[in-house]
Structures are given as C-alpha cells and as structure tokens.
Amino acid sequence: MKVPSGLPGWIFVPAAVGGLFVVLPLFAMLASVDWTRFFELVTSESSLAALELSLRTAAASTALCILLGVPMAAVLSRSSFRGLNVLRSLVLLPLVLPPVVGGIALLYTFGRKGLIGQHLEVAGIHIAFTTTAVVLAQTFVALPFLVVSLEGSLRTAGRRYEHAAATLGASPTTVFRRVTLPLVLPGLVSGSVLAFARALGEFGATLTFAGSLQGVTRTLPLEIYLQRETDADAAVALSLVLVIVAVVIVVGSRGWASRAAL
C-alpha cells in the first residue's frame, strides 16, 4: 500500500507504536496527578528551591557548553589529523556512560583527593558537593549533545562561504565570527536547547558528585526522587512541572530555529 508521503504503509505501524511508547507514559503520569493539591505540592519551599536551582545551574552549564562546545565542534568538523576519530569518540563518551560513572569520574578529578581537586584544596577552592559541582556534572553529561548537533550543522553547511570570505582577505577569526557562526546558528540553538534539557534532567552524576543539600545541590530531579519515598503525589506533580518546562523550552526553541533557518 502506498501513501502520499511515498513511504510504505506498514512503516506507520511501528512508528505509531514508538510514538505511543513515548507519549502514553506521559499521559499516565498526567492522569495520576492530584489536581486538588497540585499548586500546594509544587509551591512548597523545597520544591521551589529545587526548581530555582535547577534552572540556574542548567543555564550556567549550557553557557559553559556553548563556550567549550562550539570550538570543539569546529575542530571536529573542520580539522583533519591523526587521532581525530579517537578524539571524537572520547568527546561523545558521556552519551553512553552511566551518569553515576560520570559522577565518580568527576569526584576523582575535582574531589578533595582528586587529580585536580587536591591542588585546588591547597588553594582553598572546594568544588565537590557544592553548586559548582552541580554545574560541572550537568556540563559533563550535556556537552556532547551540543557538540553532536553543531558538528552536524557545520558539516552540512560546507565551506564554500568560508573559502569565499577568506579569498576576500578576511582573517580566520573574522570568517568564523562573521560567516561560520551565523551560518550554523539554528544548529547552535538546537544544540544549546538539547544541552539545557539534558542538564535540567541530570540526576546520577549530580547525586554522586554534588550530593543533595537543599538550596545548594538538590536539583529538581533529586527532589522528585526524595519526594517519591515520602509523598508520591508530590513526586508526580513535580515530574509534571519538569515535563512542562522541558516541552516549553524545546517547542519554543524549535520554532525560533525554524524561523532563523528561513
């Protein structure tokens, strides 16, 4: 059977099953919300503190991802040297590592007796189990999302406009700033949103490296986990808040990126 899309009819069956697999649990959670206590549950002191901390640290980690990820994506997409594939694999490693493993790795790097942390301790700088640790944990797991998205955009864009600008006498920095970045802006926005969403939902690495201190390191996912043990209704309500925030950000950014691409 043929359909106007040009796809075989059977392909819509597993596609529909996949869609239901993603959407149905969200509807199940929505149906489980205690709407009579919803605002009471999501506006408690601990809930608001966790939400505020999550948004603040996710924004900081996204900024750090942009600062580090844009040069990384440029190097991976525009360079050619021995070991490049190995470097790419290492950059993308946090995508497949269990988050708790990432947390342990960060702890043994920036902890009190860590590779770098022991020297920072001498200087009076403490990172583990602080808000800074939350930002670093979120950045560690979110950075590959921005790099992958932006590297794909850079490869798709090609290099003809960059070559033209260089031929006209523009320096490499000017070409990168005035040509390359505007050309891949939609990809940068998409990657930044993916990084923000991943940072917002980070749990394992944060718990291992930063702990769970209210107002300092207890982000919304950690608050949901703790509430699940004592008040299931609060956990469901807070989960819905996290879903709503993520949906608004992703949908809004995709619309902006689509307009920017026109």
From TrEMBL:
User: Where is this protein chiefly located?
Assistant: membrane
User: Which family does the entry's similarity section mention?
Assistant: Belongs to the binding-protein-dependent transport system permease family. CysTW subfamily.
Membrane topology is: Multi-pass membrane protein
Q: Where are the transmembrane segments?
A: 12-33, 53-77, 89-111, 123-150, 179-200, 234-257
Q: Where in the cell is it found?
A: Cell membrane; Membrane
InterPro entries named in the record: MetI-like (IPR000515), MetI-like_sf (IPR035906), ModB_ABC (IPR011867), NifC_ABC_porter (IPR006469), Sulph_transpt2 (IPR005667)
What protein name does the entry list? Molybdenum transport system permease
Native species of this protein? Rhodococcus koreensis
What GO cellular-component annotations does this UniProt entry give? Answer: plasma membrane
Tell me the domain of life: Bacteria
GO MF term (any one) = molybdate ion transmembrane transporter activity
What UniProt keywords are attached to this protein's entry? Cell membrane, Membrane, Molybdenum, Sulfate transport, Transmembrane, Transmembrane helix, Transport
Q: What CDD domains does its record include?
A: TM_PBP2
Instruction: Describe the task this protein carries out.
Output: Part of the ABC transporter complex CysAWTP (TC 3.A.1.6.1) involved in sulfate/thiosulfate import. Probably responsible for the translocation of the substrate across the membrane. Part of the binding-protein-dependent transport system for molybdenum; probably responsible for the translocation of the substrate across the membrane.
Residues forming the ABC transmembrane type-1 domain are 51-253
Instruction: Write down a Pfam family by its short name.
Output: BPD_transp_1
